[in-house]
Amino acid sequence: MNIEIDNVTFDEALDEIRKLIKARNNSYVVTPNADHMIMLQEDEFFQKVYKEASLVITDGKPLIWISKFYKTPIKEKISGSDLFPRVCEMAAKEGYTMYFLGAAEGVAAKAKENLEKKYEGLNVVGTYSPPFGFEKDEKEIDKIVGMITEVHPDILIVGLGAPKQEKFAYTYRDRLNVPISFGLGASIDFEAGNIKRAPKWMSDIGLEWFYRMLKDPGRLVKRYLKDFKIFALAWKYRPKKRKAESK
User: I need a surface site. Which of 108, 129, 166, 236 has the fewest CB within 10 A?
Assistant: First the structure.
C-alpha cells in the first residue's frame, strides 16, 4: 500500500533499536496500523515522515492479514504497547536513560513510577504532558526542547497520538538530539494504569480495537469504523501478479 515495512521479529526489532541507539543519528521509529495507513493516503507530510523513519514495524493484525493476502507475509505483529515495556526492560538492563512526553497531566509521571518499580535500574530522567495545541506554540516547543536536551535521554517516548507524535519526532529530531524516538500513542496511559489493555487473547486474534472501542465509544467508534477502509485499500493495492492470476 505504498509503504515500506521492515519485516522483522520482535527480537530482531530490539536488535535494530540497540544499533540505532549506539549510532546516535537522531533516529525515530514508526509503528503502522490500519489508522496510519488510511491517513497516509492523503497526508503528504506524514508520508515523508514514514519514508525517513529508521525503523517501520507492524502494529496491527489487519496488516499481518493483508501481508499474507499479498503473499509477502510479515513475520510478527509488534504493537507499540508491547514494544514499550520491552524497550524499558532493555534500557534498565543496558543503562539507557528515557524520557516520556505526552498523555494527560500526571499520567507520564505515574507511568515512570510504575515502570521504575517494575524494571530495576530503569532511569526515566524526565516526563512532561504538553498542553493541547502546543505544536502551534513556538514558546512551548522551545520549552519542551529545552527540558529534553537538558537531561540528554537516550530514548524518547512520545505519546501524543498519530500523526502528531510522529511529526513531532521527525520535525524536531535534530534539535532534540535524542538517539532514538518512538511514537507510541496510548502506551504511556497503559503503563500508568490510566487505560486498561485488552486481554491477550483478544489482541492475538485482532480484536484489541473492539475492546478499546467498548471502553471509550465516544472517542473511538468513529475512528475504528473509518479503519475498515483498510480492506478496500488492500484490494486497491493488491499485487498486479495476483490480478493477472485471477483472470
Answer: 236
